[in-house]
Amino acid sequence: MRSCPWIVFWFLPFTKAAAFEMRERIEAALNAEIDAIAGDAGISKEIDRLERQRILLTGADISTFHSFCQRLLQAHIDATDIPPTFRLASEQENTSAQTRCHG
Questions:
Q1: How far apart are CA 47 and CA 36, in angstroms?
Q2: How far is CA 72 from the centre of its chain?
Q3: 50, 31 in Cβ contact below 8 A?
Q4: Is the dihedral of CA 87, 88, 91, 92 positive or negative?
Q5: Residue ranges of the alpha helices (H) in the chain?
Q6: Most-buried pick from 7, 16, 17, 47 (CB within 10 A)?
Q7: Residue 15 in 3-state DSSP?
Q8: How confident is the model at residue 97 (pLDDT cuts 50, 70, 90)?
Q9: Residues 6+ apart with CB under 8 A from 82
């Protein structure tokens, strides 16, 4: 595993399931790396760094592209012409709109 902190990566999967799986995979990779080097007494700083990354992962914003954009718009709603009460359409609403548009 490289020494680049996870915090510098931007994870935007397209489904909630993929976001959940991505978080699990990152945690599993961190755990595997910690386990792999745990027996080496001279590597405690590396273990500390990896454990810190594991802690940071719990608060990491790993969300769908749509959720990220929604939060971004909500945070800067005053800079747009979008009503502050906007929301994302549900899957059912999307399907209904597609049916109306495409027949």
A1: 10
A2: 14
A3: no
A4: positive
A5: 16-37, 44-58, 65-75, 91-102
A6: 47
A7: coil
A8: confident
A9: 73
Length of the chain in terms of residues written: 103
Backbone angles phi, psi at 11, to 5 degrees: -105, 120
Ramachandran class of 93: left when φ > 0, alpha when ψ lies in -120 to 50, beta otherwise: alpha
Q: Token digits for 42? A: 């001279």
What pTM was computed for the model? 0.66
d(CA 76, CA 19): 24
**What is the DSSP secondary structure assignment for residue 43, as one 8-state letter?**
G
Q: Give CA 79 to chain center in angstroms.
A: 25
Looking at residue 51, its amino acid is E
Q: Tell me how far apart the alpha carbons of residues 67 and 64 are, in angstroms, rounded to a whole number.
A: 5
Q: pLDDT tens digit string along 34-74?
A: 998 887 777 888 889 899 999 989 888 888 888 888 889 99
